[in-house]
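Per reviewer request, we include the raw input and output of the structure prediction for the construct analysed in the revised manuscript.
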Amino acid sequence: MKKQISLFAILIGLLWSCSNETIFTKAYRFKDEQWTQTMRPVFTVEIQDTTQLYDFIFTLRSTTDYAYNNLWIFLRTTPPFGKSVREPYEIKMADPNGNWIGKKSGTIVEHQLVFKRRKVPFKGKYKFELEQAITEKQVDELLDVSLEVRVSEAK
C-alpha cells in the first residue's frame, strides 16, 4: 500500500512539473467596445529566467456583430536592452463563409495570436504594445485584448 501511495505521489509530482505555469496575465478593456487608432494597449512583463521557453498568448474578444473576417494589428516588442521591433500580424476572425474561427460562447468570440516556445535573450521588463492597423479610425464590437505568458510545457 505504501509503495502504491509513493508511486502515485511521484506520478502527481511529474505531472505537476510539466504543467504550464502562468507568469503574467493582464487584460485591456476597450471603452464602448471600440478600438480606435489612438488606443495602444501596453503589457509590461518581467522575465527573470532566460533558460526557460515561454508561450505568449494574445487573446482578442469580439462580439458576433464584428463586421470583418479579420483584424490587422501591429505588435511592437521592446526588450530590456536593444531596439524595439514593430511587426504586422493578421488575426483571422471568420472564414470566407462567415463562420467564426475562434471559441464562440453566445455572442462573444475569442480569437488568439499565439507565439509558442519562445526564448528571451535578457532578464528584465519586456514591453508589448498593440495597435490596430486597419484604415478605419475605429473598429467596433471589440471587447478586450489580453496577454498571458506561460512557461512552455516540457517536450
